[in-house]
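Researcher: Next entry: UDP-glucose 6-dehydrogenase (Evansella alkalicola).
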Amino acid sequence: MYKIAVAGTGYVGLVAGVCFAEVGHQVTCVDIDEKKVNVMKSGVSPIYETGLEKLMQKNYAAERIDYTTDYNSAYKNADAIFIGVGTPERRDGSANLSYIATVARQIAESIEKDCLVVVKSTVPVGTNDKVEQFIQDFLVNDVKVEVASNPEFLAQGSAVHDTLHAERIIIGTESKWAEELLMKIYKPFNLPIVSVNRRSAEMIKYASNDFLALKISYMNDIANLCELVGADVQDVAKGMSYDARIGNKFLNAGIGYGGSCFPKDTKALENIAKQHGYELRTVKAAIDVNKDQKTLLYKKASKRLITFNGLKVAVLGLTFKPGTDDLREAASLENVPLLLEQGADIYAYDPVGASNFAKVHPEGKNGKGNITYVTNVKEALDSANVCFIFTEWGEVKAVTPGKYRELMRTPLVYDGRNIYSIDEMKEAGVEYHSIGRKA
Ligand code: UGA
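Model: Predicted structure:
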């Protein structure tokens, strides 16, 4: 078993650290935030992620994992240091690498024995060559250090499961030593490993995420056409999915993809291409479709209602997908301000995301409109004039069509996640608008 340090305790770093401990490695997670470190030591996860806390507590009790702000002590004797810090999007769409650079410098100044630095964060192709050079330039002790790429494929909400049962582990190395060490570190996971060079590994991450984003945008594009020609996108997707070359996943049309990955990684790859004088037309199309898709239902409802001024608007779901409290690039963040500008009286429900949303739109008067956060679907729907569904939470899916009819003043529903069958809603007397299906 190996001595592993992990830099950054966000989704990528913390989940990786906990899973390395779970398979038996000795792990120290490093974060600059002392409060967060103390919270983690007490067995509480700073992120909402199924199963994570239990594994944190189990491995902390078994003394296989610890948390610290003291990077020097964590790095100096590590066999491998995994970097999982953020690479947020800059205004021009490129990736901001300043967190990676800070960690790289700390590593260079700390390590006292040969060490493999493994970058899990999503970085533009070629970055890890630079990270390696940067570490060499600042290296204090006479030790061997090499950088490997090991992109992460976990999805929020199922991060622990995705890591322990990954479909593949990608390792990108430039030497036999690095390749063999990473292979040994991952051996206890007993998962398929694809070993390539460093730049290919970096590219695999972007190419995978952007392909999935493209798949979603393609289905959204087809959905919009389905509406015009009188087809049903769910039936179309079902028919397509029997072709193994297409597969049955990520074919759900809706109000566009959100989250911290697809929007950022599509723009980043487009940017990388631009820097090389190439236009990545397919990815650009995925970005364009997604932009329009997010406010599609608002635009439809605007035509139907003329104004939202003074109307009670129920909003069900605020997060970018169920199973997370993350709001990044969520459709709600685009639609709620539009509704508020129009003077809507919003009653918003989300089982976990409401307090984060309230940081952006505090409860009460917001410009011409008003927003109230409620703790159940019934309160949101009660006497509402119109309802928008932005996230397919289980609590939202559990609402029967009859409830909309019973609770709302006018049962008018705009569903961005195609939760209900058109016939059921019609039978219940609900005016129902969804994506890619005839109303
Ligand atoms: C995504 C990828 O799925 C992971 O493989 C990847 O590791 C991760 O990004 C990352 O780069 O870190 P995540 O952003 O957590 O994971 O969420 P997804 O479940 O992929 O959903 C992204 C968005 O696409 C959501 O807004 C979701 O509602 C939307 N989506 C997904 C659709 O609109 N239709 C679909 O069929 C599937």
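Model: Note for the record: The first helix runs from residue 11 to 22.
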